[in-house]
Specification:
By secondary structure, the chain is an alpha/beta fold. The protein contains 28 helices and 16 strands.
């Protein structure tokens, strides 16, 4: 294998299939990334195409310091400065990401309401306790009312959050009080989810908001509407409807595909249909139909965040993350790939033609030329799921001989919801984050890091995630993950309890062994970053680590980010008080002022700030330095001598 191909991925299964694709003359995302170089001006946020007079390019002068006169002339046709252009572009990325996550939340809320009214056969309330907890939180009367009556009112309230025009989002009340007060003081407490996204699009229209500070403040408000609004609604209602995840053992990587079974890959981000496909694939009639076609059964596997959803609740194995979606087709063993929304490559139908795979789109929001479309109707979901599974079964006999399924697959444990972590740490009657706080205070655990985000073909697949996570846990930092980043760590064997003894520092390893958890916890899909917000808030409320999220020894990162969703996620973590570092590239470096505002001034305003470092080991070092800085501020940076108290000493304490 050439050195050049080794740089495309650190995953052996992916590398083998990249070679196979080359032999099969199939063009992959890795090839296109080599052939198409990024625009150097657009890459740094210095190109504006928001009107018909442009695009206008306002790059920084190279090789010399910019004079005031040069800076004055460096404007778009309308007079927009480099700072305005960079801020507009960054804010629009936030709007795009927040819209994607929040539209996911809206779809869940609509299904939740339909299920509550009995209008969506096959769906039912799976977590009654969480339903009642949310009812108490939102002021919904319980009394002698049925679950369906309670759920109907909750569904109506949830949908109301999207169109709310004034006041504040209901879930903002979950944040520490000090954080809520800060948001109000800065004027960034979100009103309605849709309103904040629309306001970004309005402000970034030609000739509207032309102050980069003001633009980025609105960016914070829309991002908070994502994290503490749309995404949190999606997570909470999915848990009530489909069940709150609990630890489950499964496997990850392309080796989970099976040569003798009908392979169906579920790909995308919304679990509404995939829940029904999981049920349908287990239907004895469907299994018998598959056997009649020569298969020994039906095998489900997932890609991207729909995969994480059905993994967390059903143990369905993960075929891979974003950059492995084309490679799954190259195996020649996938009979159908079912896609809904987000992170789906338009190249899939073209690649599928080289093999036998059926690409099936299911959402009216996401149709692809060359793909089969079977529209998902939540009011008749079982029929939609059966039609899809039948297409895959009928396609099984059409497999050719060009089949190559890698052997690589790794065990992982997923299902670490906020509630599960609470229970594992404190037990059934004393569920609490206090043991985590205590072990941070006594130094066994240095701090906590959220490592999340995508893959990016501009960097080596999975390398950044794995290198960063290994460095963090080696230094006693507990890592929590979602999305494609979680899958990367899972393929490296970091999500089983045994990984603590092999990869973690002595302190973290001792805690993991005592509790029985891996040093890296899988919390779910991209929208489930809201679980990380809840975990951080619980750490504050359980005491000993300050009175706001910004006081905690925590940090966040997305070492291989690609999607606008990652920018929105990062912005709501920064605005919630978390130091957050991204790799690959940074979209505002075309403006020194805007970059400094995000990297420095934001910390003074929010207690959290952005940073950029493409080297994952150096980025991990910066995260550890930040964690140590927070430990010092809390006065827990020095080891404390353990003292065994006798009764006399205990009486003196009283």
């Amino acid at each position: 294998m050439t050195e050049e191909k080794k740089k495309k991925s650190v995953d052996l299964a992916s590398m083998a299939l990249i070679d196979k694709a080359s032999s099969d003359q199939v063009n992959l995302v890795f090839d296109r990334a080599e052939e198409m170089k990024p625009c150097p001006i657009g890459l740094v946020g210095s190109c504006c195409s928001n009107c018909g007079m442009g695009p206008c390019r306002v790059p920084l002068p190279r090789g010399k310091e910019e004079t005031p006169e040069e800076k004055r002339k460096r404007r778009g046709i309308c007079g927009a400065t480099a700072e305005t252009i960079a801020a507009r572009n960054f804010a629009r990325k936030i709007a795009g990401g927040a819209a994607a996550h929040s539209d996911h939340g809206r779809a869940v809320a609509e299904l939740f309401l339909a299920a509550a009214k009995g209008e969506a056969p096959g769906y039912e309330i799976r977590d009654e306790q969480k339903l009642l907890q949310l009812a108490l939180e939102w002021g919904v009367e319980i009394g002698n009312r049925s679950n369906s009556e309670i759920a109907t009112q909750i569904g109506e309230k949830a949908l109301g959050e999207f169109g709310r025009q004034e006041g504040e989002l209901l879930f903002l009340r979950r944040a520490p009080l000090k954080r809520q007060e800060l948001w109000r003081k800065l004027g960034v407490a979100p009103r309605g989810i849709d309103r904040e996204i629309v306001e970004i699009m309005h402000r970034t229209h030609a000739g509207v908001d032309q102050d980069y500070r003001n633009l980025l403040q609105q960016g914070s408000r829309a991002a908070l509407a994502d994290g503490w609004g749309g995404s949190m609604i999606a997570t909470e209602l999915q848990d009530i409807l489909f069940g709150t995840p609990a630890p489950v053992l499964s496997q990850v990587n392309l080796g989970v595909l099976k040569e003798d079974e009908v392979n169906i890959i579920i790909h995308g981000h919304e679990p509404l249909l995939s829940e029904m496909i999981v049920a349908t694939a287990q239907d004895p009639q469907m299994v018998e139909l598959a056997k009649a076609k020569g298969a020994s059964g039906i095998n489900l596997a997932g890609i991207c965040c729909t995969a994480n959803e059905i993994l967390m609740r059903h143990g369905v194995p993960l075929a891979g993350n974003f950059l492995q979606q084309e490679l799954a087709l190259v195996t020649g063993a996938v009979d159908a790939m079912v896609v809904d929304v987000q992170c789906i490559m338009e190249s899939l139908p073209d690649i599928a033609q080289c093999y036998h795979t059926k690409i099936i789109t299911t959402s009216p929001k996401d149709k692809i030329g060359g793909a089969m479309h079977i529209e998902f109707n939540e009011r008749n979901a079982i029929l939609s799921a059966k039609e899809i599974v039948k297409v895959a079964i009928e396609n099984f006999p059409k497999r050719g001989s060009n089949i190559s399924i890698p052997k690589e697959k790794t065990d992982l444990i997923a299902g670490f919801s906020h509630e599960t972590i609470n229970y594992l740490l404190g037990g059934l009657f004393r569920a609490s984050y206090r043991p985590l706080n205590d072990n941070i205070i006594n130094g066994r655990i240095r701090g906590v890091a959220g490592v999340v985000g995508c893959n990016n073909a501009r960097t080596t697949h999975n390398e950044g995630h794995i290198a960063m996570v290994k460095e963090l846990i080696k230094n006693d930092v507990l890592v929590i993950q979602t999305g494609c980043s979680a899958m990367a760590s899972a393929t490296a064997g970091l999500m089983v309890p045994e990984a603590a003894a092999e990869y973690a520092g002595e302190g973290l390893a001792s805690v993991c062994e005592a509790v029985g958890i891996p040093p890296v916890l899988h919390l779910g899909s991209c929208v489930d970053n809201s679980r990380i917000l809840m975990a951080a808030t619980a750490m504050v409320k359980d005491g000993g680590l300050g009175d706001d999220i910004s006081d905690l020894p925590v940090a966040g990162a997305a070492p291989e980010w690609m999607s606008e969703k990652a920018i929105s996620i990062g912005q709501y973590f920064v605005a919630s008080g978390v130091f957050t570092i991204f790799g690959v590239n940074w979209p505002t470096t075309g403006s020194t002022e805007v970059t400094q505002f995000l990297f420095k001034d934001f910390e003074e305003m929010y207690g959290g700030m952005w940073a950029f470092e493409p080297d994952p080991l150096l980025a991990a070092k910066l995260m550890i330095e930040h964690i140590d800085k927070k430990r010092k501020a809390l006065g827990i940076d020095k080891a404390r001598e353990r003292v065994l108290y006798d009764m006399t000493m205990r009486r003196e304490l009283e």
